[in-house]
C-alpha cells in the first residue's frame, strides 16, 4: 500500500462484513508465529506501543457499511494479522465511540479458539487501528449465501463450536447480543470464529434493557420491551441453526411488525427436509420463556449433535469423561453410548 493509499484509507465500522447482510439496530445510540506477536502484547510487555510503521499493509479484505479491513504483516515476526481501521470523525458522527471502547475492552480479554483474537490497538490523530487475528477463509455469510444452506454435518460442527464459544463468553459474564452469520468468520481449518463484539456487554449481574441486534434474531423478551440477559444468545443460536439448515431465518415475514408477531408467538415452522432431531434441538433453543431454553452446556450431548458432528470435534469440545462414556462404554455398564443417544430424542425443554 502506498502512502497515498494509507492517507485515503476509508472510515471503518466495527463490522468487517462485506456482504451487504442484515444491519444491526438499536433504540440507543496456536502457537508458532502467533505466539511471538501475542507475547509482545501480554503483561510481560505492557508498555508496548504499536504504530502503523510496525506493519506492512496489504490488500483490502473487506468493506462494510462504514469502512474496511486490511491484510497486514507485523514486520518483526512476519506474523499475518488483519487490521481494522476506524476513522475518529466517523465514530463521533455516528455516536458509537462508547460502543467501540466497550468492544475493545471485551474482545481484547477473550481467549477461545472460536473467538477472533484481538491482539491490541493503536491510534493517531485521525484513526483507530485494531490488530485482529486473520481468518483466511473469510465470512461465513458468504459461504452460506453461495451454498444456499449447510448440510446437517457442517451445521452440527458450527453449532458445537458456537455453543462452546458462547458458553465461554457467559462464564466471563459477556453477552454477545448480535449473533448472526454476518458476524462470523472461518479460520485456517474452517473453524468458526465470532468476529464482532460491537453490541456485546459485560453484565455480571444486572439485566439489560437496550433493544439491539438484528431483527430476524431478536428474542421475544427484547421485542416486548422486557429486560434480558445471557439467554438472548441461546435464542439467537437457535435462529442461527435454523438459518444454517434452511437458508433463511425462521420468523421471516413481510414487514417488521409481522416479523415481531411471529417472534413473539414463537411461530416456528419447519420444512420437511429438516430432520426430526434437528427440529427438536431448534425447538429447545427457541422457547419464549428465557430460562426454559436448553442450556449451552447441554447442546454437545444432544442426539442431533452426536449423530452429525465429526467425532474428532466431539472429542475436542466434550469433557473427556463424557466423551469416553458416550463412545467407549463397555457393554452392560449401564452408561449411555453415542449410538443409543443418537437413536432416541429426549423430550421436554431442559
Automatic annotation (TrEMBL):
Domain Protein kinase stretches: 55-305
Pfam families: Pkinase
Reactions listed under catalytic activity: L-threonyl-[protein] + ATP = O-phospho-L-threonyl-[protein] + ADP + H(+); L-seryl-[protein] + ATP = O-phospho-L-seryl-[protein] + ADP + H(+)
Tagged with keyword ATP-binding: yes
One MF annotation (Gene Ontology) recorded for this entry: ATP binding
Active site: 178
EC number from the UniProt entry: 2.7.11.1
Amino-acid positions noted as binding ATP in the UniProt annotation, renumbered to this chain: 65, 84, 133-135, 182-183, 196
Chain intervals for the UniProt region annotation (Disordered): 1-40
Signal peptide start and end residues: none
Biased composition (Low complexity): 13-32
SUPFAM superfamilies referenced in this protein's UniProt entry, alphabetically: Protein kinase-like (PK-like)
Record bears the keyword Kinase: yes
Entry keywords, A to Z: ATP-binding, Kinase, Nucleotide-binding, Serine/threonine-protein kinase, Transferase
Cross-link (Glycyl lysine isopeptide (Lys-Gly) (interchain with G-Cter in SUMO2)): 180
Main enzyme class: transferase
Annotated family: Belongs to the protein kinase superfamily. Ser/Thr protein kinase family. Aurora subfamily.
Name the UniProt record assigns to this protein: Aurora kinase
Source organism of the structure: Nannochloropsis gaditana
Amino acid at each position: 500500500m502506498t502512502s497515498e493509499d494509507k492517507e485515503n484509507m476509508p472510515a471503518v465500522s466495527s463490522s468487517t462484513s462485506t456482504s451487504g447482510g442484515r444491519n444491526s439496530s438499536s433504540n440507543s445510540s496456536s502457537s508458532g508465529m502467533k505466539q511471538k506477536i501475542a507475547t509482545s502484547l501480554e503483561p510481560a510487555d505492557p508498555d508496548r506501543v504499536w504504530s502503523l510503521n510496525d506493519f506492512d499493509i496489504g490488500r483490502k479484505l473487506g468493506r462494510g457499511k462504514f469502512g474496511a479491513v486490511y491484510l497486514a504483516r507485523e514486520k518483526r515476526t512476519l506474523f499475518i494479522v488483519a487490521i481494522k481501521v476506524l476513522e475518529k470523525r466517523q465514530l463521533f458522527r455516528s455516536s458509537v465511540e462508547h460502543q467501540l471502547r466497550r468492544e475493545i475492552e471485551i474482545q481484547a480479554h477473550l481467549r477461545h479458539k472460536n473467538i477472533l483474537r484481538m491482539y491490541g490497538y493503536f491510534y493517531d490523530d485521525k484513526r483507530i487501528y485494531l490488530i485482529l487475528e486473520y481468518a483466511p477463509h473469510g465470512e461465513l455469510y458468504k459461504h452460506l449465501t453461495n451454498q444456499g444452506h449447510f448440510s446437517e454435518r457442517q451445521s452440527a460442527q458450527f453449532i458445537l463450536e458456537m455453543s462452546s464459544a458462547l458458553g465461554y463468553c457467559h462464564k466471563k459474564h459477556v453477552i454477545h447480543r448480535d449473533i448472526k452469520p454476518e458476524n462470523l468468520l472461518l479460520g485456517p481449518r474452517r473453524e468458526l470464529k465470532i468476529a464482532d463484539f460491537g453490541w456485546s456487554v459485560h453484565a455480571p449481574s444486572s439485566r439489560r434493557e437496550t433493544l439491539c441486534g438484528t431483527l430476524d434474531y431478536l428474542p421475544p423478551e427484547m421485542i416486548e420491551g422486557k429486560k434480558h440477559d445471557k439467554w438472548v444468545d441461546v435464542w439467537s443460536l437457535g435462529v442461527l441453526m435454523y438459518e444454517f439448515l434452511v437458508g433463511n431465518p425462521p420468523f421471516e415475514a413481510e414487514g417488521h411488525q409481522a416479523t415481531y408477531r411471529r417472534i413473539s408467538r414463537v411461530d416456528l415452522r419447519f420444512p420437511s427436509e429438516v430432520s426430526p432431531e434437528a427440529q427438536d434441538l431448534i425447538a429447545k433453543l427457541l422457547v419464549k420463556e428465557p430460562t426454559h431454553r436448553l442450556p449451552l452446556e447441554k447442546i454437545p450431548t444432544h442426539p442431533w449433535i452426536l449423530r452429525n458432528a465429526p467425532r474428532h470435534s466431539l472429542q475436542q469440545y466434550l469433557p473427556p469423561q463424557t466423551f469416553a462414556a458416550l463412545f467407549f462404554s463397555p457393554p452392560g455398564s449401564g452408561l449411555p453410548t453415542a449410538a443409543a443417544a443418537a437413536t432416541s430424542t429426549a423430550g421436554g425443554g431442559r
